[in-house]
Write a structure and sequence with these properties.
By secondary structure, the protein is mainly β. It contains one helix and 14 strands, in the order ββββαββββββββββ.
Length: 192
């Protein structure tokens, strides 16, 4: 589900079974808002003090800090951060360095279980992989592991859950040797 705030859509995830709402921003910060204080997304955004130029990009419930936060970057790397990394002993409203900012963030999503993801580069190379291949880490600023190898100045431009893509033969894009691959060219008619 996406809600348009300003010109950029904010990706919103499920917040059921959560006591806090986590708001991740374009400045690699995460803001925590007690769920009992809010009734809708606009109210949650009103409870935080964004820095000049900072925008909310992803909102999710903490779900007792279980699961993982998947972050993907333009340089082809993807990280799998344990949600416990965002738990704090004290009632802090803002955590800096919620994710690495050395390369442009192109995907962020909280997951409970490993999922198939599809990445595509600007030269239309595609890789299908499961997040089980990425070891979870406790460091919020992980650079991630190289999933899509850059070739001739290429970069990873998009990552989606496999079920949100239109691929006639998804397994065609899964490399048997694992990660750090260039990928296969996108077939005519397939969409990511």
């Amino acid at each position: 589900m996406e809600v348009s705030v300003n010109p950029n859509p904010i990706k919103i995830a499920d917040d059921s079974n959560s006591n806090e709402v986590l708001i991740f921003t374009s400045f690699s910060n995460v803001y925590k808002v007690p769920k009992k204080e809010i009734y809708n997304i606009h109210q949650a955004l009103g409870k935080i003090d964004l820095e000049d130029g900072e925008q909310a990009i992803y909102i999710t419930g903490e779900k007792s800090y279980s699961g993982f936060l998947i972050v993907a970057f333009e340089n082809g790397k993807i990280g799998k951060i344990t949600m416990t990394s965002f738990s704090t002993e004290y009632q802090r409203k803002k955590l800096r360095n919620a994710f690495n900012n050395e390369s442009k963030l192109i995907f962020i999503e909280r997951i409970d279980d490993d999922v198939d993801l599809v990445s595509i580069s600007n030269i239309k190379k595609v890789v299908l992989f499961n997040t089980v291949l990425i070891n979870p880490v406790g460091s919020r600023t992980t650079k991630g592991v190289q999933v899509m190898k850059q070739k001739d100045g290429s970069f990873m431009m998009k990552v989606e859950r496999a079920e949100h893509t239109k691929l006639s033969e998804p397994e065609y894009y899964r490399k048997s040797e694992g990660l750090n691959v260039v990928g296969y060219y996108l077939k005519k008619g397939d969409e990511i």
